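User: My instructor asked us to take a sequence, write out its structure as tokens, and then describe one feature of it. I'm not sure where to start. Here is the sequence I was given:
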Amino acid sequence: MGHLFYNEFGTVANTSVLTTGDPTELAKFTNVQVSDYWSGTEFAPDPVGAWLFRFGLGDQFTRIKSFNMLAWAVRPGDVSVIPVLAALWLFGSGLIGLLRLARRKR
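Assistant: Let's start with the prediction itself. The structure tokens for your sequence are:
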């Protein structure tokens, strides 16, 4: 969410995303709130807590999970896809490795 806040929206630290964010980028999203959003990542030292990101100031901190906060819903297609060439290279190199192992066993 920090990447979205600072890089995509172009917001400045300690300011609201609605006042300093790029209006063109903000228009791609509906109902952006100047509020706290759960990140979905537990706070490792204390599993009762979780990380959240504050779109009003551009900072993050932890809070007990029982607090009511907003969540950012992600739809299929919103998540970046693995490039096909990289996936083919990874698959091919794994296949070559398996073939070499099979040859050694003979």
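For the description part of your assignment, you could build on this observation: The two ends are 52 Å apart (CA to CA). Try explaining in your own words what that tells you about the chain.
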